[in-house]
Design goal:
mainly beta; 37 strands; elongated; transmembrane; Immunoglobulin-like; Fibronectin type-III domain-containing protein; 6-stranded mixed beta sheet; about 625 residues; about 35% strand; single chain; Ig-like_fold; 7-stranded mixed beta sheet
Length: about 625
């Protein structure tokens, strides 16, 4: 017999593990094709947020962060759709419970539509807003949610906090009262704990440009830092004002301060509002008492008092009293005629110089909230005395790896005015790109502008400038920078040995190769698994108990089966015995013959029988 060794552990488990490993490598391979650098999907936060052939229907929240919507607040949602050949037949937007949020059927075969509807979340949770656009051939296209936060979708929270100032003008260097020629400096900081973008609007005494703002953090990711610096040789009291908000109308905050610049040989009146000393809210009272203190090297002849929502805009000043006696230190304000809103008190002191020197101070915020507002306005409408450019992206704090980012901003006219579309001017790196932008109209006073570069931008810092006017001829200029940290080249292609291959083509080819490999090796592995198992069963030695543990360090001796050798051939005589048969005795021949003759005689003497066959049975 052939020699065998004791059985070893089957390799079946290891082969099965390799099979599963191969299967799991396929989706990892495909994901690797889709994400050429990492699995962090936030790298795509600025991809494909505009209406295009790839995304023919887009849903956006133009003014707020859709990932921190405050419950029980109403927001405007914009839907933009287009077709390249056939017209748009219908658009339908639903929530996760299949409730209609917006639905409209179109006539006249429009190739591009822009609609707006309201959305009010009532529960703090993630929401699924889905939409369908139909063309004239009844072909459907998905409407996707898109914004600077597009990868996070829509989520509502219980409370959304307003941005707050972390600095105060009292920290100005050397102070808020300087001499001509002195350098004034103030670093303003603000923060939004929800990390919403902080939008801001800065204004200074009209006609004076000596105070220069330098943007350090532009409000992205909830951080705003601006350094104001400058000097002047013109003595006066200069007013500065800045508004900040996160897109919510109730989250508007402002900071106003006065920079008093005195001549070196004299001074201007120094006046300080003592009460109110902090922001207040007026809901029921009809009057407000204001107290102040002042000093001057010369003689103050009178005081003037005004209220305004924007102190730097003298046209918005509401007169309280323009001839307050020089020895007065208090003044009552009748609040019954003031509409609901946020105001500040402007107090001026005029002395007897020729020309007169004017000192000035502004109060903290005074909020009038008596429920006088008519109608329900959406909670994401922030209208100011000046036009604004808000919710711009990408910001300076964004990590932009895509070298073709979508540049986006929202434009808002001043209160009661409309945007002059022909005045919109957009520049990228000092190059006019206005003819290449897409303008979406939310209302006569609100627009959004989008720009997707046709070619990849170079790695480094890029500057965007947007300018427009409203119907009051007020003009606003907004500029910001962003940095591209990714590789140069086409983000939609792979660079392989100097050749660019489209990512979609590479994905198809790679997936096909992976499937071919899977089809070839999977049967081989499975066959090897069962073959190994069959051979292991044949090699089992039945003489060993199945429960004996294996000792890998023990050398097992082969098992041999031996037969005893025949040493001598023996020969023996054998006689077979007579067989014993239990049969009757054989009769003698004579008696047997006599018996046969008798049987013949008897047969001849028998009568003949009828041998007719019976009739067949039917």
């Amino acid at each position: 017999m052939r020699s065998r060794i004791a059985p070893r552990k089957s390799r079946k488990g290891r082969s099965l593990f390799l099979t599963f490993l191969l299967l799991l490598s396929i989706p990892v391979f495909v994901i690797g094709l889709l994400q050429d650098e990492s699995f962090d999907i936030r790298n795509r936060a600025f991809d494909d947020i505009e209406v295009s052939e790839k995304n023919p229907c887009v849903i956006t929240f133009p003014n707020v962060n859709p990932y921190s919507l405050e419950i029980n607040s109403t927001f405007r949602v914009q839907v933009d759709a287009m077709t390249t050949s056939l017209g748009v037949k219908a658009v339908s937007i639903k929530d996760e419970n299949n409730n209609d949020l917006f639905s409209k059927t179109y006539e006249g075969n429009p190739q591009r539509i822009s609609e707006s509807f309201s959305f009010t979340p009532t529960v703090a949770k993630a929401y699924e807003i889905k939409g369908i656009m139909l063309d004239l051939n009844q072909k459907s296209y998905e409407c996707v949610i898109s914004s600077t936060f597009d990868v996070e979708g829509v989520r509502a929270v219980t409370n959304n906090s307003k941005p707050v100032f972390l600095s105060t003008p009292k920290n100005s260097k050397p102070s808020q009262s300087i001499k001509t020629g002195d350098v004034y400096e103030y670093t303003l900081t603000a923060e939004d704990i929800d990390k919403d973008t902080i939008n801001y609007s800065f204004s200074f005494t009209p006609g004076n440009l000596w105070l220069k703002p330098t943007i350090i953090e532009d409000g992205g990711n909830g951080r705003l830092t601006i350094k104001f610096r400058g000097s002047t040789d013109q003595p006066a009291s200069y007013l500065a004002n800045i508004f900040i908000h996160d897109g919510y109308s109730r989250h508007l905050a402002s900071q106003s301060w006065v920079i008093s610049v005195s001549p070196k040989e004299n001074d201007i009146p120094n006046i300080k509002i003592i009460d109110p000393s902090e922001p207040i809210v007026i809901k029921e009272q009809d009057s407000l008492k204001v107290t102040w203190d002042s000093k001057d090297l010369n003689h103050i002849t009178r005081y003037e008092m005004y209220v305004s929502s924007n102190p730097t805009n003298e046209k918005s000043w509401i007169t309280i009293n323009r001839n307050i006696p020089y020895n007065a230190t208090t003044q009552d304000i009748n609040t019954t005629e003031l509409k609901d809103g946020t105001y500040r008190i402007i107090l001026r002191a005029i002395d007897n110089q020729n020309p007169p020197a004017i000192g000035m101070d502004v109060s903290e915020e005074i909020v009038i909230s008596k429920g006088q507002t008519e109608g329900k306005e959406p909670d994401d409408l922030v209208a100011l005395e000046d036009p604004q450019v808000i919710n711009f992206s990408p910001t300076s704090t964004d990590n932009v790896s895509n070298n073709r980012p979508t540049i986006k901003a929202s434009l808002i006219a001043s209160i009661g005015e409309t945007i002059i579309q022909e005045s919109i001017l957009v520049k990228l790196d000092n190059k006019d790109i206005t003819k290449d932008i897409k303008i979406n109209k939310i209302s006569d006073s609100e627009y959004t502008v989008l720009f997707l570069p046709e070619e990849g931008l170079s790695k480094g810092v890029h500057k965007v400038e947007i300018t427009f006017k409203d119907s009051s001829e007020k003009e606003v200029l907004k500029d910001w920078t962003f940095t591209i940290s990714g590789e140069d080249g086409d983000p939609d292609s792979f660079n392989i040995f100097g050749y660019y291959i489209n990512k979609r083509v590479a994905m198809i080819i790679g997936g096909g190769i992976a499937l071919i490999i899977l089809a070839i090796f999977t049967p081989m592995i499975i066959f090897a698994v069962w073959k190994d198992d069959s051979e292991d069963k044949k090699d089992i030695n039945p003489t060993l108990p199945p429960t004996i543990p294996r000792d890998d360090n023990k050398v097992e001796a082969p098992i041999y089966t031996q037969q005893k050798q025949v040493e001598e051939l023996v020969t023996e005589n054998f006689v077979a015995p007579e067989p014993i048969l239990d049969t009757p005795p054989i009769p003698e021949p004579e008696s047997d013959l006599s018996m046969v003759l008798e049987q013949i005689d008897d047969a001849q003497n028998e009568p003949e029988k009828n041998n007719t066959p019976p009739e067949p049975i039917l």
